[in-house]
C-alpha cells in the first residue's frame, strides 16, 4: 500500500487515518533509518533529513498565514524533489527516503483551496516522522 493511502483514510473527503501520525510515521522512520545503516549509518542522517522537513514546515506556515500565493508555495514544495534527488545522487539519502518525499509532495493538490490543507497534513506527518526518526537515530 502506498504511503499516501496510509495517511489519508479517504483523501477525496480529506479524512486522515487516525494512525497516520503514530504507527505509519513510526514504520517509515524505522524503515528509512535501517536502510540508511541504522544508528551508525552514513545515509539518511538526521541533519540531512531535517533540512527538507524545515522547508516544508516553513512553506506550511507561510501558507497558513496567507504570506504568498499558492502557486509560488507549490513551486517551492516541488523544488524539494529536485533537491532530494540531488542528495540521492550524492549518496546522502536512500531510495526509501526519496520515495517517501515524492509521495508526500505529489499528494499536495494544485488547487488553492485544497492544497494548503494537504500541505498541512504532509507537514504534520513529517513532524511525527522526525520525532520517531530521532528515536531511531539519536546520535546524528
TrEMBL record:
Domain of life of the source: Bacteria
GO biological process, alphabetically ordered: defense response to virus
Species this chain originates from: Thermosulfurimonas marina
Role summary: This subunit may be involved in monitoring complementarity of crRNA and target RNA.
Protein name, per record: CRISPR system Cms protein Csm2
Coiled-coil features, chain-numbered ranges: none
Pfam families: Csm2_III-A (PF03750)
Keyword RNA-binding: yes
Family the UniProt entry places it in: Belongs to the CRISPR-associated Csm2 family.
Amino acid at each position: 500500500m502506498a504511503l499516501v493511502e496510509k495517511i489519508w483514510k479517504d483523501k477525496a473527503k480529506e479524512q486522515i487515518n487516525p494512525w497516520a501520525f503514530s504507527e505509519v510515521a513510526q514504520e517509515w522512520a524505522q524503515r528509512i533509518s535501517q536502510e540508511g545503516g541504522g544508528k551508525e549509518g552514513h545515509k539518511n542522517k538526521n541533519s540531512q533529513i531535517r533540512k527538507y522537513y524545515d522547508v516544508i514546515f516553513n512553506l506550511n506556515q507561510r501558507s497558513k498565514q496567507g504570506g504568498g500565493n499558492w502557486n509560488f508555495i507549490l513551486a517551492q514544495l516541488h523544488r524539494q524533489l529536485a533537491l532530494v534527488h540531488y542528495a540521492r545522487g550524492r549518496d546522502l539519502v536512500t531510495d526509501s527516503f526519496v520515495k517517501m518525499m515524492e509521495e508526500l509532495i505529489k499528494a499536495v493538490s494544485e488547487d488553492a483551496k485544497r492544497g494548503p490543507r494537504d500541505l498541512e497534513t504532509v507537514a504534520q506527518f513529517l513532524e511525527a516522522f522526525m520525532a520517531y526518526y530521532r528515536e531511531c537515530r539519536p546520535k546524528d
